[in-house]
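#onboarding

Welcome to the new folks! Below is a worked example of what a typical request in this channel looks like: someone posts a single protein sequence, and someone else replies with the predicted structure as tokens. Don't worry about understanding the tokens yet, we'll cover that in week two.

Example request:
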Amino acid sequence: MERMDRLWPGGPVFYYDDALFPPGTDAFLLGDFARPKPGQLVCDLGAGTGLVGLLLLARVPSLALHCVDLSTPALRLAEKTFAANGLSAACHLADLRDLEGVLPAGGFHLVVSNPPYFPVGAGPAAAGQARQTARSEAACTIQDLCRAAARLLRWGGTLAVVYRPERLADLLEAMRRSGVEPKRLRLVQHAPGRAPALVLAEGRRGGRPGLQVEPPLLLHHSDGTDTDDLRRIYFRDRL
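Example response:
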């Protein structure tokens, strides 16, 4: 079922469908972690319904945004979201493993992605083919993602990804093999004393070795209340 929500009361709207991969904390984390600058050319690989792109545009409206996804229904919702907010973004129905003739190589300042987390046959099962494709690497491995990002990025451009901590070694290896040097890393914890649930990573095309590990991102205090970081990430400071 198609649904509509807002980033904050009176703020930008976004559309999604329960049958597709629904909006989650990982998208909001990535939208906050990435560092876009005004006027930059940005691509969201595996954009789905366009939530991460909307989050970036909510922060920096002057971005030139391109969204790539394999799902026609998801991209239709992305286009509906951008149109409803009067925002300009180009949506491309394409396989990120073959972007020749779809997007130019070497021109993007920033690539973002919330890629499938699990190898085929691993991880929890998802309901429906669309959710399963978004969760497992049947249509895109982490190496595919990093290779596509490297092709799109200009020299010195950055890739920002949200991923699972148990696959951090795979992510960092895939980045380096693609010529995207890991430069910034932040683990995400739901509460103090809990093991990290997600990892945010940034790499630079052609960057020199040297990884900055930031303090863990804590989402909830010991008593279950939201941290200031979580309130910022979900725009609750605008309530």
